[in-house]
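Cross-check.
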Amino acid sequence: MEMVKTEAIPNLNVFSETLQSLAELDRDILVVTSDSRGSGKLVPFGVRFPDQIVEVGIAEQNLVGVAAGLASMGKKVFAVSPACFLTARSLEQIKNDVAYSDNPVKLIGISSGVSYGALGSTHHSLHDFAVLRAIHNMTVVAPCDNFETTEAVRQAAEMKSPVYIRFGKKGMPHLSRYLDPGFEIGKGRTIREGDDLTFIGTGETVLPCQEAADLLAEKHGIRCRVISLHTIKPLDEKLILQAAANDRPVITAEEHSVHGGLGEAVASLLFQAGYRNKFKIVGLPDEYTVSGSQTEIFNHYGISGDGLARTALGLL
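Predicted model, tokenized:
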């Protein structure tokens, strides 16, 4: 199934537009941001709904504490900040004020992964899946395209428990949604069928998985299944086990460290269930990450159509 050729719009822009449409109908929708109104594409939101946005300045721990307090009073709060700072500097507040206190804050990590690539490791968020997966009462979501973004934001707004959603900066084309037209947080989506190998991606790595599947089909006649596992926690165990049921090789791709993220979650599930598929985790290795644009960093570490196709051929 080919990708739909439409304009590539950053998921973050779609997040802002969706949030505005929700706030127009619901005065309980509130945004709290840490000097991220511009980078979070929230300037239009602030203009339209000045009474529904709170600016705390560069104080991410305060951001999470204020958001938790508002959520405890029944507000539907979206706490928006760069993912690298939100999930590191504010981790104690996320753990205690949000997750353990069961305040349904919607934590929005912007410019995630290596979106801030040229700014170096201080601005890379390659740890967020790992640390948030380890915290009880936390849902973790990374939409792959504009469609998944819209649905994730709408569903998160109505959730009664905490959720973390991460967004990058790159314009994302609409991936085919005809095989699995629905979206549900906690349930992955098959966006391409195939019996020879399975790619499991999340967030902005689903696109290179699809590109790799295109290359393998065109050049080698290899039919690959592509899954958008937009929810890292809880895992869609049924879909993953079905994808591995015929012993086909499995490759996971993530804009995250190879430690503690999507790949290790999938590997743990398969191994404990008795599966022995050929398996490869593609992500950022345990080293001082190179600097550059997101595309340059992806290419360097093989998180690209070409790179993933080469990895697949190696497994096959």
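The chain is about 35% helix and 20% strand. The radius of gyration is 19 Å. Passed to J.P. for a second look.
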